[in-house]
Amino acid sequence: MKYIAEVEKLESILRGYERLVVGYSGGVDSTLLSYLATKFLGEENVIAAIADSPSLARDELDDALELAATLGLQVKVVATDEFGDENYLQNDALRCFYCKSSLMDSLEPLAKEVGAVVALGVNLSDVSDYRPGQRASKERGARFPLLEAAITKDMVRSIASDFGVPNWDKPAAPCLSSRIPYGTPITIGLLGRVERAERYLRQRGLANVRVRDFGQIAMIEVGDDETLGSMADQSEVAAEIRKIGYDFVSISLEPLKSGSLNRVIKSLE
Q1: Any bridge partners for residue 214, and if so which?
Q2: How do 117-119 and 209-214 pair as beta strands?
Q3: Which of 34, 158, 198, 237 is the most buried (most CB within 10 A)?
Q4: For residues 160 and 57, what is the distance between their CA atoms, to the nearest angstrom?
Q5: In DSSP terms, which residues pair with 48 in a beta bridge?
Q6: For position 27, what pLDDT does the model report?
Q7: Where are the domains positioned within the chain?
């Protein structure tokens, strides 16, 4: 194992809690945190709580539940109500703040019921990006064990691989609302067509892909090691995406970068 000292520090941090409710999404960060917390504290003392809302793709929910069963996690699906918050729906620069506030509204009662602390899979690499949701959850008392152990995203993947966590190389999969440019109100209809478009692209074999929703235009971003294929392949993709509800389909000249829409934050402010 490459990062023995970091794992030992994380173990020490986790053993400092009697019980934990981990915000679990099926992504590698929260999966590793849930898995190691369960390993060190025991299954009965750790709940991997997955937040279910329209911003979570159904495929992601199904995969997360299947992975939790594989790893022996005590998982619980909790409903969140960010879609009942007009502040969230207006999709300004604090959307993630309102989202994490709604998450904490759901996790706090669960944690209180079992005498646990809420922990989230924030890692050291996350602090370099625009993440207002971290502030919301921190203000509500959530803890960030991976961050406290100074574990970066690359370290997370390496440690997860060493422990045999199956999704150690899974691409990041932020919520569907992250595909909607700031300033465009979020609706279930918009998220539904993004979800259908991305599902279609994954069925074509693309593992790391986003569909950014710019109204009439669907802009496809793919990882720098992936391609939509020949011009004929691209024409076929465009035709299928238009059937989903877009008038125009474009392909970004830049490779996929998680959180790329954050670059407009300063201009909005």
Answers
A1: 217
A2: unpaired
A3: 34
A4: 23
A5: 22, 75
A6: 96
A7: 4-162, 176-268
User: DSSP letter string over 55-117?
Assistant: TS-HHHHHHHHHHHHHHT--EEEEE--GGG-HHHHTT-TTHHHHHHHHHHHHHHHHHHHHT-E
Phi, psi (5° rounding) for residue 50? Answer: -105, 130
Task: Using DSSP bridges, classify how beta strands 209-214 and 217-222 pair: parallel, antiparallel or unpaired.
Answer: antiparallel
pLDDT mean for each 10 residues of the chain (269 residues) = 96 97 97 98 98 95 97 97 96 95 97 97 89 92 97 98 97 93 96 97 94 97 92 95 97 86 62
pTM above 0.90, yes or no: yes
CATH class of residue range 176-268 = alpha beta
The CATH H-level superfamily of 4-162 is HUPs (3.40.50.620)
Give the strand order in the sheet containing 117-119: 75-79, 46-52, 20-23, 117-119
The answer to whether the Cα torsion of 96, 98, 100, 106 is positive or negative is: negative
> How confident is the model at residue 263, as a pLDDT?
72
- pLDDT of the residue at 265: 66
What backbone phi and psi angles, to 5 degrees, belong to 214?
-110, 55
Enumerate the H helices of the chain as residue ranges: 4-15, 28-41, 58-71, 86-89, 95-114, 132-139, 145-148, 153-162, 188-203, 231-244, 265-268
120: buried, middle or exposed (CB in 10 Å: 19+, 13-18, 0-12)? Answer: buried
Evaluated on CA atoms 133, 134, 138, 142, the torsion sign reads: positive
Could you tell me the CA-to-CA distances from 86 to 77, 103, 201 in Å, in that order? 24, 15, 31
CA distance 30 to 43: 15
Joined tokens for residue 123? 């890692």
Residue 145 and residue 39 in contact, taking contact as beta carbons nearer than 8 Å: no
For residue 268, how many other CB atoms are within 10 A of its CB? 10
Which pLDDT belongs to residue 20?
98
